[in-house]
Write a structure and sequence with these properties.
By secondary structure, the protein is of the alpha/beta class. The protein is 42% helix and 21% strand. The strands form 4 sheets. Strands 5-8-2-1-11-13-14-12 form an 8-stranded mixed sheet, with helices on both faces. Helix 4 crosses helix 5 and helix 7 packs parallel to helix 9.
């Protein structure tokens, strides 16, 4: 920390955060974690610090994570080539085994360990545990890519009631014993909805919704679902941002109060969003959608 930053200034910063701490105390915040913030070790440390700080102030934080790049890396190491159709990984039986191993093993337990090192109390589960995420085949040509049909949220509520930070890997299952790779953004939207979360924070590798996708200064700070649909129609929301915003709308439809699309490459962006006037990224709400 800057030595020129006096104790009085530090105290002032903390008092300014007090109304926000009060607002979110006891509320559920779901963080969808992925992208550059996950593969950059320095950012990863800061994200974990943000989550533990919120947890220590009484916020019920649920961390939902993906891990596409690490799955691809493991497949390369095993000599298996990744294939994608419309941005979704073609997932045969061997690939879903690799996804389960990487997501529910290496990544999940690494994040749990980091949260505990930072002073948090965390417990890692997958979408298979307690049949948290029940799924069917999304499309036969994609193999074991799952389409969510039900969320059994009880295991997550149990962990929250016991004071844990639940860390959830996005694999699912069906009644026949099949395992499915689940899109992390979609899983986060469904889980946040089932929890009636105050807010879903979706960490990405861009600033948010931009009027001009090549100019970060054209950030749109807030949109309603109705306005988002208009931005789809006009082509402002395009490419990889389309499924992100669709997941935001899914979360709103399922009862989440608002969703933030946030640049996870900015240090401590979660704290900036929740504990300052300025916020970060684009907020999607249902207001004006009547």
């Amino acid at each position: 920390m800057d030595n020129n930053f006096s104790n009085a200034q530090r105290a002032e910063v903390l008092t300014q955060a007090l109304p926000y701490i009060r607002r979110y105390n006891g509320k559920v915040i779901v963080v969808k974690y992925g992208g550059n913030a996950m593969v950059n070790d320095g950012l990863k440390q800061q994200v974990m610090e943000d989550i533990v700080l919120l947890w220590l102030t009484g916020v019920k934080v649920v961390l939902v994570h993906g891990g596409g790049p690490e799955i691809s890396d493991m497949m390369n190491r095993l000599g298996k080539k990744s294939q994608f159709i419309d941005g979704l990984r073609v997932t045969d039986r061997e690939t879903v085994d690799i996804a389960q191993m990487v997501l529910s093993g290496k990544i999940n337990k690494t994040l749990v360990n980091l949260l505990q090192i930072k002073g948090g109390k965390a417990m890692g589960i997958s979408g298979i545990d307690g049949k948290l995420i029940e799924a069917d085949v999304k499309d036969e040509k994609l193999g074991f890519v799952g389409d969510i049909r039900n969320i059994n949220i009880a295991p997550v509520n149990d962990l929250l009631e016991k004071g844990y930070i639940p860390v959830i890997s996005t694999v699912g299952c069906d009644g026949e014993g099949n395992i499915f790779n689940i899109n992390g953004d979609t899983a986060a939207a469904y889980i946040a909805g089932a929890l009636g979360a105050e807010r879903l924070i979706m960490m990405t590798d861009i600033a948010g919704i931009l009027k001009d996708k090549d100019d970060p200064d054209t950030l749109i700070p807030a949109v309603t679902v109705k306005q988002a649909k208009e931005l789809f129609a006009s082509g402002v929301i395009s490419g990889g941002m389309i499924p992100k915003v669709e997941c935001c709308m899914t979360a709103i439809d399922r009862g989440v109060k608002n969703v933030i699309i946030m640049d996870g490459r900015i240090p401590h962006s979660i704290l900036m969003e929740l504990l300052t006037d300025e916020g970060a990224g684009t907020m999607v709400t249902g207001y004006g959608n009547e």
